[in-house]
Structures are given as C-alpha cells and as structure tokens.
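step 4 of 6: structure.
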Amino acid sequence: MDADHVFKALADPTRRHLLDRLFERDGRTLTELESELEMTRFGVMKHLRVLEDAGLVVPRRQGREKLHFLNPVPIRLIHDRWIDKYTEHRAAALADLKHELEETA
Amino acid sequence: MSTTTTNVQTTQVYQVFILATPEQIWDAITKPEFTERYFHGVRIELRDGRRFSALGDMEWDEEILEADEPRRLVHRWIAGYDPEMAAEEPSRVTWEIQPQEDGTTLLTVVHDKLEGAAKTAASVSGTGWMFVLSNLKTFLETGKPLSG
C-alpha cells in the first residue's frame, strides 16, 4: 500500500467512479459493478485489480460470492501525510496575517 | 463529497499495513496502556472472555467470540461511550492480523452485523475507524500517536 500505487489508482476516472459506487453501497460483486459501467467484464476486472493492489478495494469471500469493499485507510494516510501538512500551513499563515493586521490596526 | 446521503454500510472493511510484528499489534489492541495512546483515550483489556473498555468514569464490556493470539480476535461491539448508540443492537468486530513477507503486517478490521445499529454504523464509518487505524499505525511505527 505505498503512496505511488494509491496515486496511480486514483489517477483514472473509471477507477474513481468505481470507488464512488462502492462508497454509495459497499460489498458488491463484479457483476453488480459491471452493470453500472459501459465496459467489458475484463475491463472492470483490470481496474479492480489496480484498486486492490493499491489497497483501496479489499475483496472478501462471502459464501460463493466474492464481494468488493472500499478501504478508505490509504486515502486517509495520504491525507495525513500530504494534505494536512499543507492546509495546516495555510491556516497558520492566515492566523499570522490576522495577528499582524490586528497589531498594526 | 458528491452526495449528502447518509448511506450506512452494515459491513465495513478497513485494511492497513503496519511495520510491526503480529505480537506487537496484538498487544497494541488488547492492552490498556497501549490502547489509551491511540484509541480516543479508551483503556481496553481482555479479561474472563470479555473485552473491557474504560474511558473516564464510563465502563462497558463486550463478549469475546474468538481469540487466537496473535492472529485473530472477534468480539461484539457496543458503543458504550454514547448512551444512544449503546442502546442499539450489539454489532461485531473482527481483527485479522496477517504477517507479510516484507516484515510488515496486514491488519484487517471488519465491522459487521450493523443492521440493528444505524447510528453506530454511521459513527464508526467516515473518520471513525480510519482515525483509530491511522493513529495505531503511527503509534506502532514511531512510538507516538498522530494526535492527542
């Protein structure tokens, strides 16, 4: 589950669409997911594979069926590592600006 | 967020690779001195076939359904930290701890049987389990939790 795999997996609109479908309703079969996409079964399998390699989708057997679950943890880790850092900085910059303006006012 | 629908999943799956041994992960999820560091301050321990939680003056406990140290732990889940959620039907949490060839360990948390616990299901999804698991990963890998 390294960041390269996650960014690569997210860099494709079909794969983001698959994640959105799983976000709406989790634990779906390949057949269900395929029915919502204008794509061959093999195409959907290929995209699911990339999402599984990135750890964003976790397949689990339930009886005879293989269900696909959205795993949001890798996105959270990227958020912690990349997004928090920069938004915190921006928030801090705004706080500094406010402080400065109020002092000179 | 593309929609405002409160879609509640009755089975939720979370997975994270952690640079730690299965034993370290087992200890981190079953010993109060560890859980209080990353699990919202809750002190959790396994005793007499039950999983006890304590937070401030609140205490609650759940039945342990399976315990195979350090690979697998299954227990009922009661949201004892919130009276409204605690009144819902108990759900189930499964911890699967699988060592990998590269020295990391794959931790899978499955929270299911949430059919009778809509408020709990909504609460643990979103940032709920993600917060705990990313915090646990950071705690085990650096010795410090992300926050708190």
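step 5 of 6: annotate
 - Strands of chain B lie at 12-18, 43-47, 50-55, 58-68, 72-77, 91-99, 105-112.
 - Chain B has five helices and seven strands.
step 6 of 6: archive
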